[in-house]
Amino acid sequence: MxxxxxAAPGMREEEIDTPALLIDLDVFEANLDRMAALLAxxxxxxxAHAKTHKxxxxxxxxxxxxxxxxxxxxxxxxxxxxxxxVPDILVSNEVVGLRKLERLAALAPLxxxxxxxxDESEVATIEDVAAAARTRLRVLVEIDVGAGRCGVxxxxxxxxxxxxxxxxxxxxxxxxQAYHGSAQHIRRESERKAAIDSAIGHTRRxxxxxxxxxxxxxxxxxAGTGSFLFEAASxxxxxxxxxSYCFMDADYAKNLDDSGAPVSTFHQSLFVLATVMSRPRAxxxxxxxxxxxxxxxxxxxxxxxxxxxxxxxxxDEHGKLALGARVVPxxxxxxxxxxxxxxxxxxDRHDWYVGVRGGRVECLWxxxxxxxxx
Amino acid sequence: MxxxxxAAPGMREEEIDTPALLIDLDVFEANLDRMAALLAxxxxxxxAHAKTHKxxxxxxxxxxxxxxxxxxxxxxxxxxxxxxxVPDILVSNEVVGLRKLERLAALAPLxxxxxxxxDESEVATIEDVAAAARTRLRVLVEIDVGAGRCGVxxxxxxxxxxxxxxxxxxxxxxxxQAYHGSAQHIRRESERKAAIDSAIGHTRRxxxxxxxxxxxxxxxxxAGTGSFLFEAASxxxxxxxxxSYCFMDADYAKNLDDSGAPVSTFHQSLFVLATVMSRPRAxxxxxxxxxxxxxxxxxxxxxxxxxxxxxxxxxDEHGKLALGARVVPxxxxxxxxxxxxxxxxxxDRHDWYVGVRGGRVECLWxxxxxxxxx
Lengths: 374, 374
Fold this sequence. Notes:
Two copies of one chain form a homodimer.
Chain A: E1 20-24, H1 25-39, E2 45-49, H2 50-53, H3 56-64, E3 69-72, H4 75-83, E4 88-94, H5 98-105, E5 112-117, H6 120-132, E6 137-142, H7 156-166, E7 171-177, H8 189-212, E8 219-222, H9 228-233, E9 239-240, E10 270-281, E11 284-287, E12 302-303, E13 309-314, E14 319-323, E15 335-339, H10 343-347, E16 352-357, E17 360-366
Parallel strand pairs in A: 1-16, 2-3, 2-9, 3-4, 4-5, 5-6, 6-7, 7-8, 8-9
Antiparallel strand pairs in A: 1-10, 10-11, 10-15, 11-14, 12-15, 13-14, 16-17
């Protein structure tokens, strides 16, 4: 069931029904502009990760500012973007299963479609599907540069798989997928940089070995909001896959710069608006947004501009707030903005973005790829 | 966006696209029958909690077996049930905000609607909304019997609020909501029983004090899958609000009976089907179901009938499996059933139930109240 839209353009923020997913449009647009400005002098271009925003609307705003296209994690996300007019889509992930690959190939008339592989038998399956669909699919080799999840080893193993792809009549070798996910939230900049330097080294050596076998990499992709400045400066990466930068979250806000201060490249633009629904006793208030409305996999949300109010517990539909002894308690019915611990899965809980500017609702945008995990 | 249905009736289980939410229909129906049989000799009737299943289809199956109606947590859930023909719905929770209350009152022509309150000012608002909608709403007083979330104190505070409701022309006093949520997962039966005995005591005293003020309680509701036998035997509770019993989950499976063995009243009928999408190196496999497909707020999922395979990490779209040294690794493309840590929010990630029996898909049921957090 589609959620009832929680607002309409022109409403005041206090009138928005809750829980609702708010974008502070001024901050959001500044984040988009800042990323474009940071990448302009480098050899890398943005292929923003739609796993964060799940919306063709935002994809187009990013491409207007120079992004070459979008990444997704899943076929269902690729469908939502292709149907929404995004012309260049990379599934930055393996796609296993005939039915899923057929759905992906069916998008080829709408957009340039690329997908990753880390297994020779899967390359054969992708080839069969592309042949049956009378198309050619671009396949990247995923290498494990330190995240320890999917991907073949950098070096000879990657070269062997790339040669297998390049030899396939219905496939094109698309390059390397080299994302170091687990490095994105290493707090200290020196340690984060060391992890990414290692990933860059693995990637550079693999690119060179591929070249020795006559294979050029059209795409060398990876990086996230926590690390992209390193990859962009490397000269090796051609595409940056940052996603969270447009919204930010409480987890990314804990990353530190080289002076030990919080990184301030981007600012918080995404919020879950919640209502105080019970004040059962002194020191406690309950809001109507639990972990069905705000993801808690990377920590509990913060209460925006109320550092004295702590969100201390999330159940499905309730958030428990602890109020210190000298805190003026929020009124029953009062609305509070929550800063999500993790933006991507929080977005996945909602059907609608409510864009606000100057205290007024300016727009509603559908989150078309919400729930697109297949 | 509605998710693409992952299956069609007649398919074999191996053909189902993943991630998919499976119901083992034989086990599920046995759970429904068992609850009906357990409550039949008591004074309590089932008002099953739809926060678990979020589906009018399942609500009707429960009511055919004697349930008086359904509970929900949110107005959006009440809407989905009322629109799906459920005739008696209790919002077992406070509803704060004019727009939400107006939506609730708009359902009164379709179903008997009840709601909870724990604040006098909110009772006044509910009365205004009921008057404007030319209807009467049934309002229960929520008392905090130990959960420490919402609710007034048992005893005089509850009596005062009940009298305020009973004196309202457009409201009817509906009784008491007395749910001890945090007791449901106390593992040892003696400790769980002690917590519920205390809740029953608070409730009994409040019912008696209300009677002294001339107020009878049409409903005394509460209890969950972990505790309902105690409340049902109390003679005080008239309605049992268990939800999870129809599906069960890994968290409930940890509760123990009085012999110290796992409680075996109900059995696991809900699964997330996942596909092995990468086998990057020895000892590791990755499935395509992360915490966007299976909720991890109450612990990671288990791999059904493969105790030797551990689901050790969930990211948004990936589940990492650890395989012991002597484990035969699952094949790329192999499907595995996961037992969710927590059934309610897992259901909320899916648009479709896939009912299976004897290895075949028998039915698809829409999860109409999915995402219904408003």
